[in-house]
Every structure is written in structure tokens, then in C-alpha cells.
Amino acid sequence: MCNKYTLYENYVSDVYDTTHIYFILKKNYQKYLPHALSLAYEVLNKERRASLKIFWNKEESNILLKDIFYMERKLRTTFIVTPTHTYSTSEKLEDLLKRLGETFAMPHRSYIINLKMVQEITKDSALLVDGTSIPISRSYYKTLKDQINNLIP
Predict the structure, then answer these.
(1) Residues 6+ apart with CB under 8 A from 122
(2) Rounded to 5, what percent of the chain is helix, strand, coil?
């Protein structure tokens, strides 16, 4: 004989593998659904507006995180590539990475990639949706793969 709570035990741990905003019991959905949807809307808008502030030659730029494909460090300059523009900054990759969210990772000591822009990954490169191939060094491969897997709900 099954108790009514036993059926749901199989799903309890699954909730930790997903991004969630609110829990609503079926019997209370009319009361709490509007508030839950409002919170979800706020989270989505915040994500869409999230930006990275950089400086170059005394000029400030705010780059939307969702637009960044990758960053590349060459000599003493970091280039930040988006679909419409390539920005420059003297800030080091390690410092930039600290200011970015969990959707950004270093596949190589000279690059940061936006994991949401990765189309395919192999042992030695990441293919981005714009067709750019970014090298992956052996020492970064496992961490990078774990980060990608953690993003998948």
C-alpha cells in the first residue's frame, strides 16, 4: 500500500538540478501563480540587462553579457567580441572572469568564452555559434566540461 507522499519522493532531488524561482502547491496555484510569474519576469529581465563595464582610453563601455561571444588576451590588451563590435580593455582575463557569471569560463589561459554561445566542444576546441573555434588546453578541459554540464538543467 502506498502512502500519498511516497509517490513524490522520486522527484524531490530533481528540483536541485533545475533553476527554479517559486514553488506552488497545486491547490494554491490561483493564489500564488501571479506572484511567481512576476518574479520569473524580473529574473529574466535582470538577466537580459546584465552588463560588463569596461574602460579603454578613458572611455566607458557597458557590454550586455548575453551579447559576448568570447574574450581574447593578446599582449596587454583583452579583446571582447560581440556580434556587432569588438571592445578593448587593459583588464586581465582573470579579473574580468571574477566579474562575470557562471556562464563564462576559461578554456585556455588566453581566452574566456560565453558557454551559452558554445555549439560544440571537442578535446581541443570549442566551436561557437558564430563559427569561431576557440582552443581548449588540456589543463582546462575537465573544468570547462564540468561547467558546461552544470549549465544544462
Answers:
(1) 136
(2) 40, 30, 30
* pTM higher than the cut 0.90: no
Residue type present at position 8: Y
pLDDT at 3: 45
Q: How far apart are CA 65 and CA 53, in angstroms?
A: 10
DSSP state of 2: -
Count, residues in the chain: 153
- Please calculate the CA angle 87-88-94 and round it to the nearest 5 degrees: 110
List domains and CATH numbers for the chain. 52-151 (2.40.50.1020)
Which one has a higher pLDDT value, 80 or 29?
80
